[in-house]
Every structure is written in structure tokens, then in C-alpha cells.
Amino acid sequence: MIPYTRDPQQTIPTSAVKIIGLGGAGANMLERIALDGMEGAELLALNTDIRTLASCLAREKIQLGVNLTKGLGAGGDPVLGHQAILESEEQIRAAIQGRRIVFLCTGLGGGTGSGAAPIITRIAREEGAFVVVFATMPFAFEGKRRREQAETALNELAVLSNALVTFDNNRMGELVLAKQGIHEAFAAADHMICESIKAVIRLVVRPGLINVGLDDLMSALRTNRSRCLFGSGISSGKDRASKALKNALNSPLLDQGALLKDAQTVLVHLSGGEDLTLFEIELLMQRLQKFVPDKAHVLFGAAIDPAMGDSLSITLISALPEDYLASAPRESLSHHTPENPLLDPSQGFTPPAEKTVEPEVVKAAEPRPEPEPVRNFIAPIPEFTAAPEPAAAPATEPAAVSPLSKFRRAAATVAAIPSLFDDERPFAEPDYATKPEQAAPPAPEPEPESPMDAFTFAEPAPEPAATDEAPTAARTEPVYAEADEPDPEPIEAIEAVPQPAVFVPGPKRRPSISIPWGKTKPAEFPEDLAEPAPPVEPEAFAAPEPAAAAPVEAELPKLKLGIKSGGSQSELSLDSAPRGRFEGESPNVFDGEDLDLPPFLRKKK
Length: 605
Ligand SMILES: Nc1nc2c(ncn2[C@@H]2O[C@H](COP(=O)(O)OP(=O)(O)OP(=O)(O)O)[C@@H](O)[C@H]2O)c(=O)[nH]1
Prior knowledge:
nucleotide-binding, Tubulin_CS
């Protein structure tokens, strides 16, 4: 077999390529290209601003309008930029002479770029060069005037250049977070622009197996006023072909591939190491076909570059008319379209990270931490207070427990709820005054397990007994006496309460009570809690003591109360009485705690 060595073809010698950076933005782009390395191509910086020019990395530099602007910039005035370039026309013509291709990079909207770019394009064309212009359009925040200046220049460039590629800085700004600095926004934009420029330049200057010519590039980019669609991806290892394509489609300039569906011409360029296989190329092109219309003209190029090792890169270039992009509804440009099979997550596509939400918003949107679990016995209280619905005694309640014990237990339980009393606030009250019909909505079924059941859900509460005061008035204006205030109208039953040594349902946190049904009614302890009881308002929970007075007296004959209404108080003899416990009563133990012991004694244990 006769070995056949194929000489790599060189489309354009690099010495025939000139990359020009015009104005401040152009200088930045050029610098990045220089830093990334663009072997062979000549870099030329043009600017009115001498300071920017001096710091530029390009080997060749020309100051524009030396006499006109005297080293200062054009101050955002395109007329100055236009005159400045005319002043330096001969120098520029000499620098471009003999070049076959000129890439002009500039930012439109300012004075130098907008005013000088059309003139440079004209000069280069007159010198016989093929001119590709890469231009940025200003950010929206830069104002209407800049945008208009940019538009005017763009229209001229569209006529004068061979190919015009625009990058909207607004769109580039999407590459960075909204709160990142303007430097980051520019840097991200520049990076994307430079990648595109480099890819295009490489495409036409790199030796290839299947070459892409300038005519191909022109047809890919040529539309009257077009925006460049550009995507570049690189990958290595297993599945490198599909991964590289995925990366290329992720480019924001392609709208994640969606924009390609309307492209008329798409230029595809593959580059890989010496192990690049035909199978990979086929696979990649097959997948790509799902993104481009059937009748689209696909221009294909491939190059072997040993320096790429086992990496494979793909570059996609196309253009769409600005008019089309402006009129297309945003949703139609979305990448989440069924026509994008490669972007289907089920096929392994990972959508690009959504724009990150502001930290504070994330915080705000974060689910709140779970509130501390509410203790069971507290939960039914509001229900009860809102609607004293009757409820059967819980099944777990031992039948032998006397009503008194029930009451004591409940009173002790209430006393042991510090949170209910510590802040001395009443429960949330229904708005009786404004919406009386809503005063007692049907209460949900109480939880039978609740230790409050025995106390709170007793029997249907009858209407309060008629008193001198209207019941509603008493309910809407419950009386909460201050802890230190003496009760204005002493009630006999309260006076007769034995002293704490005898029976203390709980620490005397609320020495005064409110009697919702009116103070004129003497406190009575219900003989049996199973019997209809007067409606109990929230605050009544806090005041079991006075109600307990009468039955305690009745059930403890051994305790001699030396208190008589209106009489003087004598000493209570306690020697023979059992302390803290009722004689003859078995202790009420609940949850390991003796409920007959005063809570403060229990806490001391
Ligand atoms: N992507 C990108 N755009 C830039 C950058 N700097 C400026 N621009 C854009 O380019 C437009 C023109 O800015 P410059 O290039 O600084 O202006 P100029 O052409 O030098 O004109 P004068 O400053 O008036 O002399 C601005 O309105 C920006 O929208 C940059 O570093 N990156």
C-alpha cells in the first residue's frame, strides 16, 4: 500500500490577518485575545485616549486625532471620533495594507468606536481586506443617547462590512449575577466575545482536514443586521462528542440552542486530537441536526490539532436578523422546548444554573424553621375558650376519680402551664364586640387524649345567669385585675379561701380573678363538673383558687377555718392535718407526678 500523507491545508496565512481593537472596549477585547494567545495574528490598537492606548498589550498602536483630542478620549461624541480617525487615515491605511482579513473589535455607543468604526471598515475594504466587525451594543443602563449612537454606527457598519457580529452587553450581563460588580459584567461579556472572535479567527486560519473558507463564514454570518449566534464547547474522555455539543448549546448567545431552530446557515467546526474518529463526527452531527431546521445550510469544517490531546471542541456559528430577534416572543426563544431533545433532562441534559436569587430573598423564601411543638394540653384551650363546646369525659378517665379530684388535677395542670401565666396575657379573644354572631363558632372535636379534657370539655355550658350587668358586656370587657391591686369588691368566697399550707392548686400568680359573668354573682364551686357549668372564659382558667374554696372547706372537716366573713382572722391549726395531701384520698399520680402536691413543691424535687 502506498502511504498517502495529506498536507494540512492553510486557508489564510496568519500574517494576512489583522485584529484591530478600537476605542476603550476594543482595547479590552484585544488585550484578552493577546493574553489568551492568538499565534500569528497581528494585533493593532487604535484609540483617541492615550492613557488607555499606552497600557494596551498590542504590539502595534496608533493614536487617533493627535491634534484634535490631544490624547484625551472622544468624550462620548461620535463626531469627534469620526474626525479623529480621518486625521489618522493614512497611518491606518498603511497598517492594513496587504491583509486579507481584518477583524475589527469595538464597543458602540461611545465617541471613538461609534465615530471611527465605519471609517476603518471602509478603509480596510478599500485595501481589499475581508472585514468582519465584532461590536458590542451598550447596556440599557447606559441611556438612550448611547443606544442611539450605537444604532447609527451599526447601520453604517451593516452596509460597509463583510460580516457584522453584534453582542448585546445586556445579554452578556446575564452571564453574571445582578449584584456582581460592573467589572464582572464586562469581564464576562469580554470573555464570551473573545471566545467567539478567537473561534472565528481559528476557523479561518487554522489548517484543517475539511476547511471552512471565508465565503463559508460570510454566508453563516451574512444577514443585513444580524446578531451572532455563537456557541463553543469542549470536552474530553468518554462521550466527549455529546458533552462538547451540550456545552456549546449552553452558550447564552444561542439561547441554549433554541435560536438555531430558525437559522438559515449554521457553521459547525470540529477540532480534536489525532484520535478524533469519524464515528464521533457522525454522532455529533446527527445530534446537532435536531436543533437546526432541515432546510438549513450546514457548513462543516474539521481540524486535527495534536495539541488538543484527547479533547474535542465544537464551534457553532450562525446569525439571525435583529428584527427577528426583536419580534420573537421571549418564550419562543426559551431553551425548554420539546424541539430540543438534547436539552431533555431525561437524556442527561443539565440546564444551566438559574440566576441566583438575592441572598436575602433566599432567606425570605426559605422555609421557616419548624415552630416548637406545642404542648398537647395547651392546644385545646383556645378552642375551648372560643366555643365552650360540650365534650364527653375522656375514656381514659378512671371512673372512681371524684369531681373534686378532677378539679384539683385540672387546676394543678393549669397551674403548671407557666407560659399561660407568665406573661399575664389573655388568650386571643374572638371579636365579640364587632361580630357577635361569630362569637361561638362550632368548636372542633377536642382531642380525647388531652389532659385538659376532664376540665375544659365538661358539659354544655348554659347561658350565664342573669345578672345586673348585661352578659355580653361582661364578656366583651373581662376584668383583669393587676396582681398587686386589691380586689375592689371582695367576694366572700374568695375571702374564705384557705391559706396555701392547706391546699394550693398552684403558685398564686394571679391573685385576682375575673368573673366573666359579673362580679355580683358569688363564686360557686360546681358540685359536679359533669353538670352544666357556667361558661368559662379564658381568664377563668387562671383562677381556680376562689372556686375551690367552698368545696375544700366542705371536704376537709379537719381543717378548721378560723376565717369568718367580716370577722377577725384567727390561726389555723395544722398540727394534725396531713400536709400537701388530703387524708383518705389516694394520690392522683399523672405522668409520674403526684398532682396533689403543689406544683412548686413538685418542682423542688
Ligand atoms: N463588553 C464590553 N463593553 C464595553 C467595555 N468597555 C466599554 N464597553 C461598551 O462600549 C461602549 C463604548 O465605550 P468605550 O469603548 O469606552 O468608548 P470609546 O469608543 O472609547 O469612546 P470614548 O470613550 O468616547 O472615546 C460603552 O458604552 C460600553 O457599552 C468592555 O470592557 N467590555
